[in-house]
Each structure stands twice: as C-alpha cells, then as structure tokens.
C-alpha cells in the first residue's frame, strides 16, 4: 500500500513498498498526481518489473540515502559528517537536477571546481583528502540509486578518481617532526614551568605520549588510567563534539581502531611520575580537582581537554621552543616515521596506528618509506662494495 506525505514546499511525496522496504518514487504537485503515479509503480512491482522513476530529483535520492540507509548503519558522528558534506559540498551543485540527468561530465566539472579553489595565499582551499572524501560520498549516493532505489541503470561515478598528481602532492604534505626537532621540543617542555601549577607537566606528558604511541589526539584525550595495564594501553573510545559544541565520548573510527599497544619502559616511567604528581596536586591544592572518570590528561578542573585547546597550546609552545608547528596529527606521523626509520615493518606500523589496511599506511608514508629504503640500500651497497 502506497503512503503519501505533504512536504513543506506544498508538494506531495509518494512512497511504495517493495520486498518489505519503502521507497520514495518522487514528489508531485497534488496528492492525486502522487496517487496516480504510485498506482503505476505498484503495478510494475506486481508484475516483477524494475522500479525505475527517472523523474526522481537528486535531493530526494540523497534524503533516502541519508535517512533510510546511512542513519541506521553508521555511528552518530559519522552520520553528522556525511550530512555536513552533503549539505555544504554536494547539494548546492546538484540538488535541483533530476538524478537521471546528472552526467559523468557534470561530476568531473564539480571535482575540478574544488581542485581549483584557492585560499588568499594561493594554497589549496580543499585538501586532497577532503576531495577524495567528497567523491566517495557521491559514489555511495549513486550506488544506492542504482542498486537499492533502482532509479538508474548505470553509476556515472564508476572508476572516477581524484587525479593522481594530487595524490603525489598529498604525500608531500605529511608533516612530522624530525628526531632532532622532537627532542628540542620535548626538552623545552620538560623544563617549562606552569605559572599556577608548577610541576604539573601536562603538555610535556601529552606530547611525549603522542610521539611514543601514534594515537590520534581524540583517542589520547579520552584515555583513563585504567586503560593502562601490564605495560600496554587499550584504545576503545575517543572525544568528540555534540551539536551544542559540548564534549562527549564516542566509539572509534572503525573496528581496526580498537587496539592494545605496548608502551616502552621510558614512557611508562614518565607516566608513573606524572600520575604521582597529579595525585599530589589533587590532594594538596583545593583549586586542583580530581577527575571523576580518572582521566590521564585532565586539566586542573578535572575535565577532559578539547582538541582545539590542545592545538592552540601546542602551537604556542612550539613558537616558544622555536620549533615549527606541525599540528597535533604531526605527532602521529612522527611516531610512524620514526618507527619506519628504526626498521619496523609496515604491518607493525599499521597495526599500531589502527589503520584498516596496510595500504592506508603505505599510501600515507609512501615517499618517506621509499627514501628510507633508498638510504638503507646505500648503506648495504657501501658495506658490500668491492675494491677492484
């Protein structure tokens, strides 16, 4: 039995059932028109014909994809990200088009437009990674239109990719601290004295921890002391923001992000000293509060740090230490690069970072690993060379 809904625009949306699922077949000026079209579609379904409403608008497909498909199949934070991408970067260009009239050339022009957008300083307004994500969302929408809604016979995004030269440029943008830069920054932080809470080296501990574990900043800020056991840390949550910009704890990016990794002796020693100092501050100062969650990297109010606050503070400390600021993610890249330079395998690095596949790791650090391999080969050649 078809159902009908009057939209805010005054038009009527018709939905029909097929194989136990409801699908929109389009919007119509009057309810009568919607009923007539729904009758035709239900007849085609009854006789086993393909449900194929070529008049369906792109924004209707997107609405179905988001609310009927994605909302129940992805975590809340992922759904929010998808909704933002669709609203800001896809619908403004395609919402008033019929799904059947969107051509491959239209999508290529859209991709080119984003590739050519620049900031005032001439840098790319949208990174390679962002554009790959936008295209991935488009592919998912059209896949849904072809295989679930059955309103298209062919997917115009099949085999479309962001140009390979952009991929090369993306590798060049991986920012990490050299071992010399990292040691200079950590030495500065070790000697830095907080005016109000001298001895509570929160940001030294956080930077050192990030560079020794490769955790994402959101993962590190969600850690509790109970997550460290037998010389290992278990990662099973992250910090995020809700619609009111309030902090909340959420699930991780994907199943591979849930991991338990080893901590070296030096880091464990520093963590032990940090915990003792934290407890000393809690017991000895009325203005220093205990975290109810047992947070490792708590502020003096006993609350979670926010990634934006951490970014601002680390940038300030980098300037004072005269070390180029590489972003909070720079510590994650640094950990990976130092591991590779020390001879660790790509597989070990991938597992430690919580990457879904080894390909993600090798693609991210391709240029860097090639340089490492080249340097090692030179060492081997020098060692085995024969004087003739």
UniProtKB/TrEMBL annotation:
UniProt record similarity statement: Belongs to the 'phage' integrase family.
Ranges for domain Core-binding (CB): 56-146
Keywords: DNA integration, DNA recombination, DNA-binding
Residue ranges annotated for the Tyr recombinase domain, each copy included: 172-378
Protein name as it appears in the record: Site-specific integrase
PROSITE patterns noted in UniProt: CB, TYR_RECOMBINASE
Organism: Sporosarcina highlanderae
């Amino acid at each position: 039995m078809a159902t009908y809904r009057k939209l805010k625009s005054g038009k009527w949306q018709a939905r029909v059932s097929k194989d136990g699922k409801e699908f929109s077949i389009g919007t119509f000026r009057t309810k009568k028109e919607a009923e007539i079209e729904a009758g035709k579609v239900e007849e085609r379904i009854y006789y086993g014909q393909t449900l194929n409403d070529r008049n369906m608008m792109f924004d209707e497909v997107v609405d179905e994809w988001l609310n009927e498909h994605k909302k129940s199949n992805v975590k809340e934070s992922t759904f929010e990200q998808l909704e933002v991408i669709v609203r800001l970067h896809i619908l403004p260009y395609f919402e008033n088009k019929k799904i059947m009239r969107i051509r491959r050339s239209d999508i290529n022009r859209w991709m080119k437009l984003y590739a050519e957008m620049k900031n005032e300083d001439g840098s790319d307004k949208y990174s390679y990674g962002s554009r790959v994500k936008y295209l991935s969302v488009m592919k998912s929408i059209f896949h849904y239109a072809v295989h679930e809604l059955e309103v298209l016979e062919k997917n115009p995004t099949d085999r479309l990719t962001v140009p390979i030269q952009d991929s090369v440029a993306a590798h060049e943008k991986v920012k990490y601290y050299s071992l010399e830069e990292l040691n200079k920054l950590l030495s500065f932080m070790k000697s830095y004295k907080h005016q109000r809470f001298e001895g509570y080296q929160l940001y030294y501990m956080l930077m050192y921890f990030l560079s020794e574990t490769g955790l994402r900043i959101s993962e590190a800020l969600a850690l509790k002391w109970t997550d460290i056991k037998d010389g290992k840390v278990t990662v099973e949550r992250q910090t995020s923001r809700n619609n009111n910009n309030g902090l909340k704890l959420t699930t991780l990016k994907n199943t591979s992000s849930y991991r338990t990794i080893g901590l070296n002796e030096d880091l464990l020693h520093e963590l032990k000293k940090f915990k003792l100092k934290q407890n000393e501050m809690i017991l000895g100062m009325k203005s220093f509060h205990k975290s109810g969650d047992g947070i490792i990297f708590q502020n003096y109010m006993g609350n979670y740090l926010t990634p934006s606050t951490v970014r601002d503070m680390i940038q300030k400390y980098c300037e004072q230490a005269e070390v180029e600021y590489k972003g909070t993610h720079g510590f994650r890249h640094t950990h990976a690069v130092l591991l590779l330079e020390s001879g660790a395998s790509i597989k070990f690095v991938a597992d430690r970072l919580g990457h879904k596949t080894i390909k993600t790791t090798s693609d991210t650090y391709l240029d860097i690993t090639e340089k490492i391999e080249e340097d090692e080969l030179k060492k081997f050649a020098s060692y085995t060379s024969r004087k003739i």
